[in-house]
Design goal:
Blueprint (H helix, E strand, L loop, with lengths): L3 E6 L6 H15 L4 E5 L5 H11 L8 H25 L3 E5 L2 H11 L4 H12 L6 E6 L2 H10 L14 H17 L4 E5 L4 H16 L12
Parallel strand pairs: 1-3, 1-4, 2-3, 4-5
Length: 221
């Protein structure tokens, strides 16, 4: 396709939303092509409805495989309705989470198995993979402490109910993915001050996009 596909990943509390909110104006200032920011689960009307179902704190009886299948279904609709059309038009698509999240959270956190979750998502996405993934890494206890500190200003969802061991399995799976795929997955230390995390992510994007990342008169960072 004409466009480019980049994803951001990280365990809960890594600060992806804050980083992406700060990075978007920077990316738009340096890249000539249209930039589309989207998220998972969600990003499309049907996908957002599935997101609500998955993350509803009341749905404590949801089976782990049901959860994994719902994420894959949401992703499929998002891909068909939003990501592929944007790529076809030549956009740079930045997605907050993609298949790696399912492998980490359901494969590792829920202990379904990374290979099983990857297989169902390869079916859902026709094997599509981002060209670059920026993984924001943070120790699980530190990430959960951030969530607790900011609970009043963020949505409390079903995953927030999980214990430390669950989040440690998620992080361990992410780290294993990053070690196995160093060309695609670039790790940034998210325990740094937010400004430093943003600068590190910008440096990764600049290095990856090369000539597509153009200088501008006024530096934003």
């Amino acid at each position: 396709m004409a466009g480019r596909f980049i994803t951001f990943e990280g365990p809960d509390g890594a600060g992806k939303t804050s980083v992406l909110n700060a990075l978007m104006p920077v990316i738009q200032a340096h890249v000539e092509t249209p930039v589309k920011l989207t998220r998972e689960p969600g990003g499309a009307e049907i996908s957002e409805k599935i997101r609500t179902l998955i993350l509803d704190p009341a749905n404590t009886a949801m089976d782990a495989k049901t959860e994994a299948l719902l994420y894959a279904a949401s992703r499929r609709q998002h891909l068909v309705e939003v990501i592929r059309p944007a790529l076809a038009k030549g956009a740079l698509v930045i997605c907050d989470r993609f298949v790696d999240s399912s492998v980490a959270y359901q494969g590792g956190g829920r202990e379904i198995g990374a290979e099983a979750v990857l297989a169902m998502n390869q079916f859902a996405t026709d094997g599509m993979s981002p060209e670059l993934t920026i993984y924001l890494d943070i120790p699980s206890a530190e990430g959960l402490a951030r969530i607790k500190a900011h609970r009043a200003s963020r949505q409390y969802d079903r995953l927030d109910q999980e214990q430390l061991a669950f989040h440690e399995r998620v992080r361990a799976t992410y780290l294993a993915l990053a070690q196995a795929q160093p060309q695609r997955i670039k790790t940034v230390d998210a325990s740094q001050p937010l400004e430093d995390v943003i600068k590190a992510c910008e440096a990764v994007l600049k290095a990856h996009l090369g000539a597509a990342w153009q200088s501008c008169k006024e530096e934003t960072l």
